[in-house]
Predict the structure.
Amino acid sequence: MKRTALRFLQQWKQKKTRKPLIIRGARQVGKTWLMKEFAQTEYENSAYINFEDNQSLKTLFVNDFDIPRILLAIQITTGIKPEPGKTLIIFDEIQEAERALTSLKYFRENAPEYHIVAAGSLLGIALHENTSFPVGKVEFLDLYPLRRRLEINHTNLLELFFARRSLKARAYRGM
């Protein structure tokens, strides 16, 4: 699952027509970890905003969607100047900031060069009044809880076969 999700994110990053990405999923399925891991492995830096614990930025989008103003607020808050293609902007718990979802539409239309990933729990029911959903302006990645299972492929089978064979040979030789 981890590798599949990271591969999806890598493909998203390379798209010429990339849209802001919303990662959906229940609480505790790894949305925050995935965004931070992706930022660490694929970008020079990241500007991480958690709207649940940042009161000052909860109202960032209330008055307007002026992209330069929003980017400056992100820079002041995180200490990271967002640079197209080099910085991943992460909006975590996006449902906590009024009109933040709608802002993704304006990033897509007016600043598509910025890489933005957003996540939140209960996005489908946590829309604020006066918030419109950016239909057609965002992409989605759905995460689900992992089930404990052994992924077996040809490589795993060969490793298991030779490991068992090696153990049997050692036992036979009295090692």
The CA atoms of residues 17 and 82 lie 19 Å apart. The chain has five helices and five strands. The longest helix spans residues 154-172. The chain has one domain: 2-147.
